[in-house]
Amino acid sequence: MQAYRVETVVTQNGVLTLKGIPFRAGDKVEVIILSYPHKRKGEKPYPLRGKPVHYVAPFDSVAENEWEIMR
To answer: For every one of its 71 residues, what pLDDT tens digit does the chain have, with 9 covering 90 and above?
Structure first.
């Protein structure tokens, strides 16, 4: 099965119109609808960028039971 990607906008009454798709009348197709994430105005994409970083004892050793990856 081949996939074809078409981007369109939902009209005010909730109708989607697809034009120029490579199928003939009567072909059976599957439709999956994905929405784009909404971007909020004024929201920073990286909220921690530019924030100061403070390391507590960065050169001390870490006990094996404190490693998160080992859990």
So the answer is: 788 888 888 998 999 988 888 999 999 999 999 998 877 777 788 888 999 998 888 898 888 887 777 66
Tokens 């490693």 map to which residue? 67
Strands in the chain per DSSP E: none
Report how many domains make up the chain: 1
d(CA 52, CA 31): 47
Q: Is the dihedral of CA 55, 59, 65, 71 positive or negative?
A: positive
- Scan for tokens 């004892």, then name that residue: 57
Q: Is residue 50 packed enough to be buried (19+ CB in 10 Å), middle (13-18) or exposed (0-12)? A: exposed
The letter for the amino acid at 7 is E
| Single pTM value for the model | 0.46
Is 60 within a domain? no
